[in-house]
Batch of 2 targets.
Target 1
Amino acid sequence: MAYQVQDVCNRFSDLIIDASCTDSWFSRIDSVEGVQSDSLVFISDADSLVNLDSSPAVIVTSAEIASLIEGDASSVLVVKNVRLAQAFIKQQYADYDTADSHWGVIHPSAVIHPSAKLHEGVRVGPNTVIGPDVEIGTNTHIRSNCVIEHSVIIGQNCVINNLVNIGYLCVLGDRVIVRPGAIIGNEGFGFAQDEQRHYHRTPHTGYVDIGDDVQIGSNCNIDRGTYGATTIARGVKIDALCHIAHNVSIDEDALFVAQSGIAGSCNIGKRVIASGQTGMLDHKTVVDDVILVHRCGVTEDVLEPGLWAGTPPRPFKEYVRNLGLGKKVNKLSRELAELKKRQAN
Amino acid sequence: MAYQVQDVCNRFSDLIIDASCTDSWFSRIDSVEGVQSDSLVFISDADSLVNLDSSPAVIVTSAEIASLIEGDASSVLVVKNVRLAQAFIKQQYADYDTADSHWGVIHPSAVIHPSAKLHEGVRVGPNTVIGPDVEIGTNTHIRSNCVIEHSVIIGQNCVINNLVNIGYLCVLGDRVIVRPGAIIGNEGFGFAQDEQRHYHRTPHTGYVDIGDDVQIGSNCNIDRGTYGATTIARGVKIDALCHIAHNVSIDEDALFVAQSGIAGSCNIGKRVIASGQTGMLDHKTVVDDVILVHRCGVTEDVLEPGLWAGTPPRPFKEYVRNLGLGKKVNKLSRELAELKKRQAN
Amino acid sequence: MAYQVQDVCNRFSDLIIDASCTDSWFSRIDSVEGVQSDSLVFISDADSLVNLDSSPAVIVTSAEIASLIEGDASSVLVVKNVRLAQAFIKQQYADYDTADSHWGVIHPSAVIHPSAKLHEGVRVGPNTVIGPDVEIGTNTHIRSNCVIEHSVIIGQNCVINNLVNIGYLCVLGDRVIVRPGAIIGNEGFGFAQDEQRHYHRTPHTGYVDIGDDVQIGSNCNIDRGTYGATTIARGVKIDALCHIAHNVSIDEDALFVAQSGIAGSCNIGKRVIASGQTGMLDHKTVVDDVILVHRCGVTEDVLEPGLWAGTPPRPFKEYVRNLGLGKKVNKLSRELAELKKRQAN
């Protein structure tokens, strides 16, 4: 399939500052390393421009980089934000197809309860199981070997990838992407101890409430509330192998990188970023715009925005100072020895 | 469905100290925040009592809190242990239904080997695969899209949730709950190096032996023994995304919180608690009643009960002292500078 | 089934230095603890020899240990490398059967696109879904409830265990083992932020390129490249619950122990060993023959081979010195107090 540059300009006029050769065509999107003569390529730094061996059909870049381009072999689209242009343009022209249209609309091997309500354009892959009273919004794709338990509500234009389990009563907004192997609405880890110190399970009968534009990573686990909801607000993105415990609340546009774990009833603010393998004890609060790095261990509330690291969490500068503690102690040790020597003389 | 308070009193007489209005009825169990006039609610602290906006049908609480309740709009059940009462009463009246009775007893899409022996009351969900010589005890539910390999023995009243894999020869006791996506009986990580420094896999041909009342969390991985068993004793509870390597032995009533990992051949005592993201090196021993917190890294044996943290594990008080090391060193540094200055004068 | 010792000698003559009683037979391979009269047993240390209660049919051991064996009840195979002999001999005589031959060659419940090309000896288990244009090499087994997306190429003699998802366009070499629940070829975690600070997904359209003799652990996640490949070279072994992000490159014979996570575009050298719960920030380089222990946090490049630990990574000796910092500071503090006292007098 080939696309004209003019089509990009028409669709994404708000992203584009300037455009040349809009009658050019491209048929693929590539990285600088893999560029071909019919490629569209995104260039966000001068080094990448230097590494461009041949002329692609289209270069999408910033005004600054565009000024360095010599020759006019390529159509050049000047954009405000190259990364954002890449996200939108790649979604439009080179995204992977989640429709699995080779399996038809509803695969005959899918097991769908007659009371489930599938709106127009819903696709269901082979061996997927959909329980009673489920409602699935327009154009949502449920791929292969999934299990959607009873009374789940899923919005429009969602993609539920292979081997996903969504537990009863959970609610997903629109444009939610659930990656393969994720478990949503599992029962949380809550027990009561008897006099013999044996543990007895407390049933968790709440649900998980997932907002629009959320992404849940592959093989994640999101526990339902003990009562009420575990809440993942609009725009939150969760990477692979994360654990979100019961009754956690994550506010809009927060990012959790892979293998992070959040214990029960934590409150996470807007745009919080937790880098890989972050951990949080239960009932902790992390306010808006906090960034947790270096496997931060949130054993205390984090009540100021900014960069934090360490266990317990410390402002990043303080954390870095403490990393050098060994050298500092060695220096003190030498000075003290000298002082003692001098005093002895 | 509505239940009379007297029914609770009859069933759980050993938990209940005192009861009023036992002819009242309730039809739901809620948290304080979600309470309605037909709710039963558990109250374990005075704050929750204050936050109770309207009168529920039944309050289950301690003697101390009960003395603070004004008015007699609600039936009050005074219990010895509110958390334990919550576990038992919620299990009885408001638990979720693992029978998936909408799919019938054995779903026709399940693939069950004729040599498998399913006792009375066993339920098998859609697309579940059960291999030869499997034996499944009375009233156990195997839900959807699971794979139970050959010669597995599962006890009575177990729940094997969706998308679970139980490997050949593994043995599960009674009332075991396996959460979705868990892998039990995977081959462990064991290799031998040749002269070219390439690795060759050592087959692991043991099994996993899981006692009664064990819970295995979602997306966990439990490796089988190299020879013999990886042992998870009665009452052990393992949270989501944990890793238990080959030939580990975990004794009764131990708790492993999410994302903890235990390397091969560790010995874990009774009632050990490992908080989230705990790690243990292979062949380590952790004795009874140890509590590991703050992502403890068990690089050495832990041979005394009590609270431990840090890598290597230290008694919690010592660990906390070391957290303040940065400030202590700064103080020393200032004192030393002053001393030098005075000495110079 | 019984095997003659001579058969072992014939097959593995390059491993064996000396052999007695090669006309003996064995019918099982056991550990020292489980030994029976018809067992073959591997003994790699003198303690194990002492713990041997009865005479097994065959002892495979080193020359040094062999010299300690009294009596001639057992056939003794003297080998150069006991661990390596165990790997090869156990693979030959006591490995588990991945053919699931009770399900036939291609189970009728498998959903296989007519354009998929399955070479001779390929087996496909119940409920597995294989998309269009997939090619599967000779004697490869795809077990139950897997999803192989379109255009995947899998080599010969591979084992794809239950509940695995392999994403479109991924390429696997020969003799690759994918453990249950692993997700290969998931989209990476890459987003662009707009002016409202909302995140927009950048489609990841590369693939995962897995070499010969690789093993991917259960419930792992391996992201595809943004463009181009995430590369796992020949002989790499990855344990359970690991995360490998987009465009990571792992060179030959590297080992990643359970729950390790590697962020995007890292370059990992040959024979690198990462112990359990290791973490790496994106774009880091770790050179050949580095060993990362104690949950090392690779926040900086590691450019010298050897043993490293800590966050940031430090040579192991330096890391260990820093572990004793608390005691060292206490000592300094006491010395300083004494010095001040003396000076005051």
Target 2
Amino acid sequence: MTLWGSRFTSPPDPRAARLNDSLSFDRRLWREDIDGSEAWVAALEAAGLLDAAERQLLMDGFTCVRREFELGQFIVRDGDEDIHTAVERRLAELVGEVAGKLHTGRSRNDQVATDLRLWVMRACDATADDLAGLVTAILTLADTHAAAPMPGYTHLRQAQPVTFGHWLMSHAWPLLRDRQRFTAVRRATAVLPLGSGALSGAPFPIDRRALATALGFEEVAPNSIDAVGDRDFACGFLYAAALTGVHLSRLAEQLILFSSEAFAFVELGDAWATGSSLMPQKRNPDPLELARGRAGTLIGRLAGLLSTLKGLPSAYDKDLQEDKKPVFEARDTLADLLPVVTGLVGSLRVDPARLRNAIRPEIFATEVADYLVRKGIPFRAAHALAGRAVRRAAELETRLADLPPGEWSALSDQFEADVKSCFDLDAALARRAAEGGTAPVEVRRQIESARRALAGE
Amino acid sequence: MTLWGSRFTSPPDPRAARLNDSLSFDRRLWREDIDGSEAWVAALEAAGLLDAAERQLLMDGFTCVRREFELGQFIVRDGDEDIHTAVERRLAELVGEVAGKLHTGRSRNDQVATDLRLWVMRACDATADDLAGLVTAILTLADTHAAAPMPGYTHLRQAQPVTFGHWLMSHAWPLLRDRQRFTAVRRATAVLPLGSGALSGAPFPIDRRALATALGFEEVAPNSIDAVGDRDFACGFLYAAALTGVHLSRLAEQLILFSSEAFAFVELGDAWATGSSLMPQKRNPDPLELARGRAGTLIGRLAGLLSTLKGLPSAYDKDLQEDKKPVFEARDTLADLLPVVTGLVGSLRVDPARLRNAIRPEIFATEVADYLVRKGIPFRAAHALAGRAVRRAAELETRLADLPPGEWSALSDQFEADVKSCFDLDAALARRAAEGGTAPVEVRRQIESARRALAGE
Amino acid sequence: MTLWGSRFTSPPDPRAARLNDSLSFDRRLWREDIDGSEAWVAALEAAGLLDAAERQLLMDGFTCVRREFELGQFIVRDGDEDIHTAVERRLAELVGEVAGKLHTGRSRNDQVATDLRLWVMRACDATADDLAGLVTAILTLADTHAAAPMPGYTHLRQAQPVTFGHWLMSHAWPLLRDRQRFTAVRRATAVLPLGSGALSGAPFPIDRRALATALGFEEVAPNSIDAVGDRDFACGFLYAAALTGVHLSRLAEQLILFSSEAFAFVELGDAWATGSSLMPQKRNPDPLELARGRAGTLIGRLAGLLSTLKGLPSAYDKDLQEDKKPVFEARDTLADLLPVVTGLVGSLRVDPARLRNAIRPEIFATEVADYLVRKGIPFRAAHALAGRAVRRAAELETRLADLPPGEWSALSDQFEADVKSCFDLDAALARRAAEGGTAPVEVRRQIESARRALAGE
Amino acid sequence: MTLWGSRFTSPPDPRAARLNDSLSFDRRLWREDIDGSEAWVAALEAAGLLDAAERQLLMDGFTCVRREFELGQFIVRDGDEDIHTAVERRLAELVGEVAGKLHTGRSRNDQVATDLRLWVMRACDATADDLAGLVTAILTLADTHAAAPMPGYTHLRQAQPVTFGHWLMSHAWPLLRDRQRFTAVRRATAVLPLGSGALSGAPFPIDRRALATALGFEEVAPNSIDAVGDRDFACGFLYAAALTGVHLSRLAEQLILFSSEAFAFVELGDAWATGSSLMPQKRNPDPLELARGRAGTLIGRLAGLLSTLKGLPSAYDKDLQEDKKPVFEARDTLADLLPVVTGLVGSLRVDPARLRNAIRPEIFATEVADYLVRKGIPFRAAHALAGRAVRRAAELETRLADLPPGEWSALSDQFEADVKSCFDLDAALARRAAEGGTAPVEVRRQIESARRALAGE
């Protein structure tokens, strides 16, 4: 049973029907489909198209259909080409002919757009929560190691000392931005298409504002043609997911490095690592690699949907059916990844001694330049002198910190005995106390500020 | 002259230098680079690292450099590997050794992030203005044709009648959303990296809040490592541009169709069409095709930058240099396209008679079903009866509107003489008066609402 | 039961295990996994690592496992983290301890690469066949309409007359190129990784050439590190699929247009069109829209995998697990689409009269220019004169073909009475007889040539 | 002067003209445009449309135009909207009215497709050469270090020992595949569009086979509509470039890691590293980071063009103008990157002692398992025992190689005194002598085989 066959002389070819059918994946919208239909029934009654008894009959039917889905007892029949058809077909079996009134003034075009928006709104909420969980785990660890020195890297070369807490926070803020982004996507999604019909609007006096309120939408779509063909919200969701994926991949990349034998800054808990079928000694960071790898897939999903939308006429075209799978999969990807990365971060054993010992003396070269700056030498000249000191140390095969006094003074008479103070790690950290800097006191303030952001203050 | 050579024993290989140099494209940041440096000079003075005389000398130097760029008289020298180097080198030529104090406490890492953010903030403003221009052109045309009937299409098949103004507005709203999106990107971009140094923060007491205010930023980046490695704002800009491109491509696709010989609903002004080198009769809609085609390129730029960012460690890596070209090109693409599409829309000659005459009687089949609904027949049954009427008309090779009374009553005794009223075009339009519908009165209200949105009310 | 747990002190967290598990999708590789393992057993025996009895025991076990899969009776157990684990676990249940010898000298790294390559080789063959089916359908229709005139379009504007067969063939050739591309991908895929171990090669004297022959591979991977980390073949498959998607989208776009009311050149069979839940009259070209829309998704899958691979170290990283889903889905997409588009093309009802009548006289403007060229006037001047004739006809509101003789001669005395011959449709077609042109005789030759290409001649 | 203005009543709006103009980038096709036009002149003479004197005049004109371009003296005029217009305009200035005969039977549609194909054919050759250069540099280094042991990594964890030469070769083979791919793209590109006219074929007896031969094409495009709208070759080029980018990014990632302080396996020559404007000690691997980063951009270009092509009708649409920039830029990217990476690889200072010393004893765990296998224990049980040995060593805080004999025998009586032989590095390497394995003798054979592949044997 299709909803549309009466003007056709032959049924769809089975292969065409199979291509066309979407129930295998849009079945996930059953809750939203029933929510939307219940609200529609109320709107039809308010518009005088159903009487109270009919309304009650339909609502009872929906209660029953809903329970069947909840219990996993809903049975799909031949001809159930999508979730909308399946629900309406079952409703008709349960309540009889009055089910035929449900679709009055409505089209699957506005119905599916409403269902998917509702789903995305809920997925945004869930993802924002998952992100909050991960950020909380990072904050907890950052708090513990707010003052633990480690080499800071640019270009994967030791650059300047930072604290481990500060480094961890460099991954918390992007995730906090992601959380805000999902909140913004939710708001942009909460614009109701229902009541737009196929494309020209409802031909009956439907109160769309009341519908919006009933379903938790904030606005009513202002143009019925746009309402049925607009998938900006789906793109927005995929963009937020892709960027979250990129942020996870950056955190993952560094944790993979830092937990490798070469760095050995952190160790993953056994519950979050995996072994090898061949090599008995292996402890592989599979969850981190999957987080990194799936960023690529998330990027592809975004590019794919944007490409699908390119060049479509406004209003509904069947191409739009390609919107659901990437949206579902993007949410699934994040629903799988975020709790695992959260658990993994919580399991990390940090080795503060390794972190501190990894710092090489050349990392203080900027301190040497700044030492000269404080004596009034322009930074550019100071930088050149410090660079020459680095080179001289290399020529002498000694460490910068061990350069003999005579070598320092040969480079410049501004280098005096107190040049050794440049290699004072804690002082170097403490100096970075401007807002956002790595001074432990500032890192603690930063963690506090992130906590407030998380709490929505 | 590089800014960093003193610890090296040999100069860069010329091919490596050429690969590395970015002046050919980051030169566009000269204005932002000077703005940022001037603010930095003020901050250094406030921190006691420059005295008033030095500050004045540097500011005079910048005034001069700025003028050279404005007049196109700035001369690039060998070793000017990027805009930052070029400006500082020139400054040193003009003001001497004091220029060497400029880079105190600053790194190119926080400098370039600041420059690019400033540039993107301005590009967002300009793009929002360009979008407002295009929306205004659409509103003007929509107002004129708010009540002009035309076939509404789904699946590129005649679906239900709408008005031309309503159809035009289905393209205005997405562009209004784009405008909001650029405003949101601007806000997210206005977070100041300056004062983050290479990655660990400023080692001098720089007042970053004052810097932010001076440069028009709204916030201060909360973590110095994140500040130098975060390119979310660039992705946000590319995403907004890609989605704008998609919206333009959808408008373009339909205008290409509607201005073709087969539809002939509208005609482009001669100033916005082009001819053929071979076929003398051609009038091609090149600007629309370029708008459609460049949507693909914009999507690719977004996918490209996201892919570049995937898996990078936090803090600065040179990979980030790939951020500028796509951002510049995306703005250029929209700066080229939007005014042209605006002019083209303004030039459209609409043919209301063609629009109305294109409507085929079968388009009223939904009205026939709704006619039965109003008689109490459930919609599902009404739909089936209307579908059978369509099929019967096809069998008789007549138009649905011309189906003889006997045929109607043979289908159902609910079809009475007044079934003819279903084919009343103006009534069908007027019925769609729920919010967002195509009823002319509602279309006019919609245009008013868009005008208010444009005015920021 | 995992294959690797003995050095761990705690089991995987269930969420990490779920993230990590791939059986839900790599289960599709069961046939290839068993094929590969059977060949491996033979290689182990040849290398003296199994005796004949052990080999037989294992082979009997595989026969049994294979049958379970074929009959849908294979039962998944907890701990079956992927198809390789599941098969080996079941084998052990069936044949006991000797199953523990199966993984000798092998790693899942070379095993999974082998399985997926085998799968892709078979998918290439199947897709090439599907493409041949579609091309055959196009050839059949092109043959029927090899001489049927229609307007040829560039920029969706009438450009020059062509034949419907010629237009159809413009979609056959790209699909023939796709078929060749899948054949080339198959060849590049048929390079055996098995025998590469985890990354360093087999530590036993395995004869990899014999393995390759047994499994139908053409070459042996020359470097064991590359062998386990190379996914070029998967990218190649996705690229071929994406380009096929683009070609289908181009065919689909034009068939959607040509079957619309505005063109009405062709009609889809009822079995390949769908209706509307709301609008009883609709006949929507859903399969074509899905073909068009899924091109976007296919493009996204390619971009996604390339992005996943970007920046990975050589050898195996878990990120590579993201290779399978897009490959499977790309094949599924084409396996769904190609037969449906084939059936749809076969069902097309072409309306030769509509095609011919759609041709507008201005389409002959190039003939007018060429008419002058044949009189010795340089083409550039001839083009300008023909253009002026078009403009004059527009001013007079007449059709170009009906321009009075006086008007022609006023433009140029080279226009004589025989200028009317320019509007002879059949002559215009027949003139395009250079190779690849639209002259019916040449179109027939072209169809013949495509038939030979299809037959592999 | 445009080539098409005569039927228009007003000139193009300047903004539309600027949008439309492509000379700024397609100017690069000047050589191919002149080559193509010279061949076309010969074809016109052969078809009787030019006499010998006219032909000579035109050829002399082209010689002159060509020289102007070669000397950088070609002057662009207003109205030169693309390279084709510019060349024809200049030709007319030089040779007068006969230049008007050049475009006889030709359209810019087949002309631009021909020009771009010629350009891509040459770009494929050049890129294949650049790739050969890089592979040669890798082979040279691999030869030197064919037997130098190092830790082999999977999941960035020490897995099994390999040789540095073997690891280097794992990057050579993908680049050899890229070289083959560009050769295949060249072949697929060498299909001549010229003689297809605007879309319907040449209306004069042009010998397209002779044209193809003259221009170095291998085939003649079989369908004129397809010929002008097919951009598969451009996609093929972008795909080959993107995959090359991915391969470079993988090599770059590992060289960035291996040259970092944490690994210190290799050091970059000073000529291939860069410093920091702030931190005097830095030696950054900028070229490698750019290689890694640009892989993203290359992926984006491919996705962009595929997306642009999606849904276009066959034959020419202006959207196709978006093909040139990404193709040019992709070639430029590789032309910049490949020689630099070649030079950088040539400059690498490898530290064999660091490589060997980095190997940790746990890496021999597979040898321990294989030791048991050789005693007849099934691999799966052997793996479990070796894993328990690893865990026991960790509990005792000793290295696996130092586990006391009593501990070994406590795990299994199969562990005898000779278990120590498992930790013999050279023996472990030598055992991997199956084809493609890391045994030095096999690595040398592999290098020889790659040399032959490079030489085309």
